[in-house]
Amino acid sequence: MVQLYNLHPFGSQRVVPCKQEPAHFCCGQDVLFVASTAASCRVEVFAVREQGRCEALGSFATLGPVLRMAHSSAGDYLVTIEEKSKATFLRAYMNWRCMSSGSARVCVRMVGHKMEESYSETLKEQMSVVEMPLSDPPLCISCCPVNGDLLVGCKNKLVMFCLKYLVINQNLTVLDFERSLILHIDNLIPAEVAFCARHIAVTTELDVLILKLELVQQSADRTKQCAQGVSAPEKAEDGGVRDESPSTHTLQLELDEFIVCQKPVELLGEESKLCEIPITLESTELPTEDTKRFQVQYLLFRRFAPDQSPFGFCEETKLHSLQLLPVYQTGSSATACEETENERKLLSLFCFFSLPHVGYLYSIGKLVELISTYQYSEKSEQAVLTPQFLHVITSQSLQCFTVRCSAAAARDEDPYIDTTVKACPPVTLDVCTLRMQLFIGPRAICHFKNHIILLTKADTEDITERRKPTRRMLSRKADSIKSRTNSESEPGWNLYIINTVSTIQLYREMVDYSRTYENVKTESCIHLLSEAHLLVRAAIMDPHFLKSDEKDDLLRAFRESCAFLGDCYSRFDTKNYHLALPYYRMSGLSMTEVLKRLVSEGDEMQTYERGFIFYLTHSLNEDSNEELSKESGNKVLQIFYLADPVQLPHILCSPCMRNVCPLTAVKYLQKVEKMMPSVVLTLTKAFLALKMGDLTMYEHEMDSYKETTLACGFIGQPRLLQQRKEGIVMPTEFAVHLKEMQPGLLVAATVALHENSKIELEEADTFFKMLCSSSENTIPQLLVDFWEALLLVSSQEEIVQELLLRVTSQYVWRISKKQLPETKPLKTTEDLINSCSHFGLIFPWVTSIMSVGCSSDKDYHEDISRLQSLLCSRSINIASALPVLEPLTEADNVGLTIRVLCNTHLGKYEEAIDQLLKRCPDAAVFYAQHELKGDNQALWWNKLLPELCKRARLTGNDCPVLISSLKETLSIVAMELELRDFLSLLPDDGTAAFFLPHLLHCSQRKLLT
């Protein structure tokens, strides 16, 4: 459906002062080329100034009448198809600007002709005409706007010429072409071609084919492997022999008497390979290391059928106005700093073509899809596509349609644009006609910056119609007017430059026009504001935007249009109400400013639509630095009480609501509590009671639920405890109060938040450090309590290992620095051992070691026992913990237990035994009894027994501990070994009497078994 509006995109118009009747024209950079009709064989050049003013720059002769012409911005050359003596020629005019300075020197050369050194100094002062011979007559041409390459359409083939920059010397660079590629397409006579960034579009009378040339990896064996595409249908090869049922005579009669039309077809993407149009690539470049090899990718094939009517077929049903439109990356460095267009980064590509009564716009960039269909009110003559509009001429009018290129390109640039942060009107938005401007006899059109060049040719009937009298005029007067229609004073043609109004001016008109629909047609208001937004967005995506005089005005208009759309989706009841949020965000408006736009002062009965509530809810639930005033905050409370009362507790926890009156807020919460009580609501009331200093009310609210229920209640609204400011987690007054009065509840609540992904581990560290006013490198006891409590519930191995390292590090630091915790730990070591599997029972041999020696560590007994308990469990990764434990390894008994525990974890039992025998032999047997089991039992007789014998012999009777340990060891060994094995272990130094009781015990055990 096409929306109809009556806006004014066309401004002033000026007549181009052509000396001869124009046959063809085109624009380039800042000039207009006009080729005269057959008689003169000249091209006039006009400079286009502000407001469409024209200034003649000069003219140059052509070989013959110009049939087609095109200008390339890259390289600034004009290419023509000319006719002479019934033959057609392809010519490119280089350095034509010197003609405007009065120079008449012209150099005509063949393409690829080597420049003679004698001409080097004069080349800058002369126009160069490059002739490009072809084996078949050229039918149509197109220049690539990105790199200046040229594509020529001939019968059954497309020929590509690459633009070359030949450096003659440091002061002179000459342009030339190289015929690089030929695309052979059987049974195809191109009517129009379009070429852009290796994308090729070609049309016949009723077919459209869009291709892309893809670079392929080059290898030695693929030099000749260039043919790509779908193989030719078999019937094309055998000449129709396969279809033998009808006779040749019958087929000929059918062809003579009937018109055979193929069915309409549309094939997109990969399916377009099925179009049965074979394409063969022939590379014509001289092979070098840099030679590029291509393959063909089919993008789109569409076939139309002739229009049918009760009177037969319409022979004028033909495609026209084929065009490829590139859209470049917004604000890229190349477009900002460079003048050369070939440096721009292509973002999206669009293809337009048209039938007499309908036009089609496709996106052929990342995705091939039909974007818009344009229905014309009458038969079209020609159309031209721009990033902002589609301009169409009919037999009597110039029409302006909106396009969706900027919407599609915005999504190519940012695939996640339709979120709560950003939005863009949809590509599927209905197109609309902005204007239908009457003209007499429009014949051709082209577009140039903010100008439209329009050629009109008035037939005799047109001039008669223009002078047609009203009904009140006499018929004889009409006859007298008709007799003057061929007067020489009235030429039958004109070439106009129509100045399109600035984007800002048209944007303002669209916004003003939309206000007429505000209270009548909601969708029309949104549609027109969306059109205005896309108009500005397209202007911002223009490559020259960063250097535009209107840059600041356009950015301001963009933000304003977002605000208007936000207003629409907030005020109106629409299905897309959620778009209020991203549009208001893109507008840059603060919440206070939005409230002023939408909330009437003193209107207690005002209703609020879903879009407004959606915007407020999301804005208040996010961490923002904006603080609403007391009045605005109270108004927000009233709005939510009327529209969504269940959100009130969450809204009151927003940082934006810091200035709200607590008493007013409590009154609203009490009303809501009667209908919908909840733990979050109770906690919010307690929070407000603290703000008011009402401790009685606070205690009453906190006593309403058990502590575990309250801890889980914070999951529903974490901002009761912590709020973010500039990305940093900050504790609230509630958290400060809990730290002093109920630290266990605070820790339990924070653990619940972490386990429900409401707070990260690092954020919790910052939270507790700020809460306890600790320095960056100081760990408060409350944070250690949190780590220990989190160890009880966490099931993620990565988190568990991180926590184990953290608590281990803290225990070691306190023990080594003789530092006591600043507050009493919430749990004792015994509590942790009983409730957490990561804290193990302390081994007897550890207790034995600690019972020997001085008692200087009594004050740090809790940290020591916690550390030993951790190491007595199998949870901690001891290899990771070794660097953390390093400060304690040289200490007294504590260090000994740490080293032995580490060696035991690492399987270094022999080293552990050596350490114990050296430092605390009392514990050696306890250690062996606890650790030397299973596969390690052999260490009793292979390691422990020999070491005890050796050390007992060296010390004699001075160390009764070694003797008692040796006796205990012998008891174990005698029980485990055979008599013969036991005898082999006995020393041969004459001390056998010492071992007799054990030998006897060993032999008796053997007899018993």
From TrEMBL:
Residues 227-248, 466-487 are annotated as: Disordered. GO terms for cellular component: BLOC-2 complex; cytoplasm. It holds the Pfam family HPS3_N. Residues 3-485 form the BLOC-2 complex member HPS3 N-terminal domain. InterPro entries: HPS3, HPS3_C, HPS3_N. It comes from the Eukaryota. This is HPS3 biosis of lysosomal organelles complex 2 subunit 1. It comes from Corvus moneduloides (New Caledonian crow). The gene is HPS3.
